[in-house]
Every structure is written in C-alpha cells, then in structure tokens.
Amino acid sequence: MALIKSISGIRGTIGGRTGDTLSPLDVVKFTAAFGTWLSQQGDNRKVIIGRDGRISGEMVQRLVVSTLNALGLDVVDLGLSTTPTVEMAVVFEKAAGGIILTASHNPKEWNALKLLNSKGEFINGEIGAKVLEIAANEDFVFAGVDQLGAYSTNENALQQHIDAVVNYPLVDVAAIKKAKFNIVLDAINSTGAIAVPQLLKALGVKDISVLNGEVNGKFAHNPEPLPENLSGLCNEVKKQNADLGIAVDPDVDRLCFVCEDGTLFGEEYTLVAVADYVLRNRKGNTVSNMSSTRALKDVTVKHGGEYTPSAVGEVNVVNKMKATNAVIGGEGNGGIIVPDLHYGRDALIGIALFLTHLAKEKKSARQLRNTYPDYFMSKNKIELTPGFDLKKIFDHIKKKYKKNEINTEDGLKIEFENDWVHLRTSNTEPIIRIYAESNFETTASNIAQKLMQDIKEAM
C-alpha cells in the first residue's frame, strides 16, 4: 500500500493506515491544504472538481466537497468527467482552481487528488511544496457557519469541451464524416465510455462499438493502454473489420490506436502522427518528454521546426512548450497537448486531429503508420524497496557509463551512438522506469536489460 506526494498530485491506495495510504483523513488533510492555498491567492472562491469512474470515486468526492465547503470555498461538481474536461472547465467557469479525482492509469485500488491552478493547468513544484508544507503543519482555518461554501453541479462541461474540440480550426468534421469510419473503443469501465462516443458522434462517426463500457471502475484489464493490455481490442477490431480501434485510460488524457489489421499503431506514435498533421498546417516547434520516441524529432525537423525534450511530467512538458512557443507537444505515453485549446493532455482533441489526418490522407491506419520512421522502445521498471538510496544507484550508473553523453535533467538519460536509455523514478509509483530505444527491437531490449542488471548491482 502506498501514499505518493509529487507534482502529479497526492496519489495512494484505498484502505489501510493513515499516512501510508490515501485514507479518508489524508484526503481531507491534503484537500484542506490545497483549499487553504487557494484561499490565500485572492477573493475567488470557486473550485471545480470532477472524477473518473473508480470504485472509490464517489467516496473521495464527498470528502473533497465537504472539506472545501468547510473552508468557505464554493464547489462546482462535474461528477463523472475526464481530466481535460475539468481542466477546461476551470477556465470556462473562471474558477480559482480545480481538483481531479483520478489515479489515471493506476489499477482500481488507487485514487488521487490532481491539483489545478486558475489556468486549468497542473500546479508546479513550487506551489506543490507550499501545499505539502501547509498539510504537514495542518495550518488550516475553517469557515464559520455563516461563511460555509456552496455546492452546485455542472452537467454541461463535457459538451462545452466537445464543442471546443469540434470547432477547433484543424479539425475537419466534414472529412471525418465522409470517411465513414467504423470504430471500436475500449473505454476500460470509466468515463471514456461517456466522453468518447459523444465526441465521435459529434464528429459524424456513426459506426461505434464500445468494449468495457459500463462505468463501474471494475477495470476489465490493467487500465494502462499498453500492448499487453489491449489484446481484446486488437481482436475485436479484426473481428468487426473495423477501420480503427481506440483505447483511452480511465481519465481520458492518454490515447492509443489499433490499426485495421489488429496491430497496434503504437502509443509512442500517437503524438508523432498528430504532430505530423498539425505541422503540415501550422509551422512551428514541438516538445515531448525525454522518455519519448525520437520519431517526433524526425517529423519536426522534416517540417522545418525545432524539437526540444523536457523532463517527464505534464507540467514540465507544458513549461517547455511555453518557453519554445511549441505548436504541439505531449508525451510518448499517448498524451497530446494542443496549446491553443488548453495546456493539458487531452485524448479528445487527439482523437479528432488523428481522424482528420486519417481522413484527409485517405490511408488506412496501418498505411499511415508505415509512413513514419521505425523505432523500437523497450519499457521496463524495477520496484523499489523502502529506504532505497537513489543517489548511490545513479552514481554507480554514471561512473560505469562516464564515456557516454549523459543528461541529468530528469534522472539519467544515456546516449549511445544510435540509441538511448532513460532511467528515472516514477512520479506515480515506487519504481524506477527504464526506457530504451533503438532502430532494432532486440537492441532496445538488450540495452534495457543491461541497465536493469546494473541497477540491481547497485541496490
């Protein structure tokens, strides 16, 4: 069981001891800390909240609402929603901030509080540190009975989000409608089952099949949209002779596709394909985190733009995008960030832009994927035991590979002649992630396995 405090929010498992898990007392404490920080920023008392379909979602939602109201803050509850919808609603509603109740790709026993500023963007590390300090000191002042906050709901936020996507200048509804796509969606028993079909219908797609469409949080498989978890979707796409399969994670900010032959388009190539389309129509720069495929750099350079890597984490990608005036960016885990829509990963705009690209190219998904460079990535992880010495581990690795180019902005990224490997601790789990990429699948795997052995030697 675990409780993790990071720039990704407060994340933990449900059930267990206070301080070791996301217990009700911890939900109240960290909500109160964030609400206290919001109250210090000015007179705006409005806070937006929304949740994914997790089993614990309604319980956590009640705790969050009551805590914010007790601080004198007014809550606008979107109910079952998506992360990007809550982000956009903060701006639409001119709120002081927001809280998204989701553990994203983590299994059903996890939940989290993801914290947003008044721009609908994740709070940065500096603000996060202040919130954690307030929580540690329990420096809360609750409102008197006549100053308690109000509670209201907003059932139109998702439609506002979809309207913004459909009306986005690079989304071509007529082209998508004309293509008459037959699409299978894996909604992983969460709010994607509500949001994605509604979007597809607004885009003119009529032939939609939904797998795992009951929003009950009892995920039919591991909810992270990785190859090993999507065999059911791949099989169903082939069985139905569909044009495309779509998979999202429980809070609908990550996205990947399945080609018409049942093969994976590749989650790393979601951003590559969308960026290719955007850059054909809007010249500019791109950003992805340094654990993402170099194919984005290839596509960016081809279109005359400049590619910049960032540290892992959505807030880091967003900061780098702002600094470089990037027109498209995101993360290789299927996260698409379209800055003039909003600075947040958003599967809905990703779907709309990908379908537009596919329709205009008049290619199948497999044919489109074949137009991009082939890199192979090996994604691995090692679980960390309590009390691990990360500095000792990384010092050992740096010494061993001192002749190679090493980037320490975010963990360790080691460059080889044509390949790379990135080691970093996760913001969301007690693990070290080991990602390696090469032109050859076996080479990427061998590099990752070698570094995993090096880590075990140093532990």
Automatic annotation (TrEMBL):
InterPro entries: A-D-PHexomutase_a/b/a-I, A-D-PHexomutase_a/b/a-I/II/III, A-D-PHexomutase_a/b/a-II, A-D-PHexomutase_a/b/a-III, A-D-PHexomutase_C, A-D-PHexomutase_C_sf, A-D-PHexomutase_CS, Alpha-D-phosphohexomutase_SF
EC number: 5.4.2.10
Domain Alpha-D-phosphohexomutase C-terminal span(s) in chain numbering: 397-450
Entry keyword annotation includes Phosphoprotein: yes
Keywords in alphabetical order: Isomerase, Magnesium, Metal-binding, Phosphoprotein
The keyword Phosphoprotein is annotated on this UniProt entry: yes
Co-factor requirement: Mg(2+)
Residues in Alpha-D-phosphohexomutase alpha/beta/alpha domain copies: 8-140, 161-262, 269-373
Record-level Gene Ontology MF annotations: phosphoglucosamine mutase activity
Family, per entry: Belongs to the phosphohexose mutase family.
Name of the molecule in the record: Phosphoglucosamine mutase
